[in-house]
Amino acid sequence: KAGVTQTPRYLIKTRGQQVTLSCSPISGHRSVSWYQQTPGQGLQFLFEYFSETQRNKGNFPGRFSGRQFSNSRSEMNVSTLELGDSALYLCASSFGGGEEKLFFGSGTQLSVL
Amino acid sequence: AQRVTQPEKLLSVFKGAPVELKCNYSYSGSPELFWYVQYSRQRLQLLLRHISRESIKGFTADLNKGETSFHLKKPFAQEEDSAMYYCALSRGGAQKLVFGQGTRLTINP
User: Fold this and answer.
1) Per DSSP, what are the bridge partners of residue B98?
2) What pLDDT digit, counting tens, does each position of A59-86 carry?
3) Residue B35 pLDDT class (50, 70, 90 cuts)
4) Mean pLDDT value of segment B70-86
5) With an 8 Å Cβ cutoff, are B93 and A99 in contact?
6) A-B interface: how many C-beta pairs under 8 angstroms?
7) Which of A26, A33, B22, B102 is the most buried (most CB within 10 A)?
């Protein structure tokens, strides 16, 4: 079966712009979570959506937001981009129960100039 | 606060030698611990989780609550084990993970 698909693969934006990243989970998975990966901070949890509702949230400013659609696809939005938002953004999906294996996408590499 | 520490950024061993990747955590409750691995040009993937008490690709990890550790071990390293390894902790479900900084393991022939 198809894996987790993230689009686009690469993005270049300038400071102050906003960006939307997309994630299509594995068929049947209802949970989608997002992580930011940077060389300095490593992998950090952004938020998780389950059945169109945000179920968990990390410690990121309100400029970072997300949503999930009825088909479980998820989007992440970052407004008023800052240079420090340059990172690899990873999406992961699972069925949504506890202690489950997460399946990760290849990520979207965002560069903010 | 939850924290995961992997003290070694880089670890290099020879093929056939034992491997131990260290992971220490801080968490006041009962954590769920995981090891994730990323091979070259592949996605991040689950290697093993402590609740399963399983051995994957010859790797094992034991949760030591007294020492708050979850070290990953393999008795005989193979070249295909070269990868980036991340220890992770979760609370309240596996979807919210706290990751360590990772250890890059290199197996020399």
Assistant:
1) B89
2) 999 999 999 999 999 999 999 999 999 9
3) very high
4) 97
5) yes
6) 58
7) A33
Task: Tell me which of A45, A57, A68, A106 to substitute to probe the interface with B (most B C-beta atoms closer than 10 Å).
Answer: A45
d(CA B81, CA A9): 27
**Interface touch B97/A106, C-beta < 8 Å:** no
Signed CA dihedral, B9, B15, B20, B23: sign only: positive
The token pair at A6 is: 């993230």
Cα nearest neighbour of A57 on chain B: B96
Query: What pLDDT score does B94 carry?
Result: 58
| Residues near B42 by beta carbon (within 8 Å), at least 6 away in sequence | none
Instruction: Give pLDDT tens digits for A15-51.
Output: 999 999 999 999 999 999 999 999 999 999 999 999 9
Beta strands in A1-113 (DSSP E): 5-7, 10-13, 19-24, 31-38, 42-50, 53-57, 64-68, 74-78, 87-94, 103-104, 108-112
Q: How far apart are CA B13 and CA A11, in angstroms?
A: 37
User: What residues in A contact B100, CB-CB < 8 Å?
Assistant: 42
